[in-house]
């Protein structure tokens, strides 16, 4: 279930993780604690980024629904 993550367009780091939008599930909180996802918050809007760079914090890409 691990997707290939796109490199950060700002710093080219491949240390990027998917952003989990919406009310976090127990699994999402577990993954966030392990650094596998970033919790984006429970307010979901149009055009939310789908990926966050762990190196510089830049958010990019389109959220997958
Ligand atoms: Zn970056």
- Kindly name the structural category: alpha+beta
Tally of DSSP helical segments: 1
Uncertain regions spanning at least 5 consecutive residues: none
Total number of distinct structural domains: 1
Mean pLDDT: 89
Total beta strand runs: 4
Backbone shape = globular
- Name the bound molecules: zinc ion
Order of strands across the widest beta sheet? Answer: 2-1-3-4
Calculate the terminal CA-CA distance, rounded to whole Å: 15 Å
Helix content: 10-25%
Classify the beta-strand content into a percent band: 15-25%
Radius of gyration: 11 Å
Give a short account of the largest sheet. 4 strands, mixed
Listing every helix as H and every strand as E from the N terminus to the C terminus, the arrangement reads EHEEE
Please describe what this structure looks like.
The structure is a single chain. The protein has 65 residues and is α+β, with helices and mostly antiparallel strands. A four-stranded mixed sheet has the order 2-1-3-4, with helices on one face. It is built from one helix and four strands, in the order βαβββ. The model has no long low-confidence stretch (mean pLDDT 89). The chain has one domain. Helix content is 12%, strand content 23%. The protein is globular, with a radius of gyration of 11 Å. A hairpin with a 5-residue loop joins β3 and β4. The structure holds zinc ion (ZN).
Core attributes:
single chain; alpha+beta; four-stranded mixed beta sheet; 23% strand; binds zinc ion
């Amino acid at each position: 279930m691990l997707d290939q993550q796109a490199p950060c367009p700002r710093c080219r780091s491949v240390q990027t993780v998917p952003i989990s939008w919406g009310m976090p599930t127990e699994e999402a909180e577990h993954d966030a604690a392990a650094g596998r996802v970033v919790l984006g918050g429970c307010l979901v809007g149009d055009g939310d980024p789908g990926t966050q760079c762990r190196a510089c914090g830049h958010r990019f890409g389109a959220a997958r629904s």
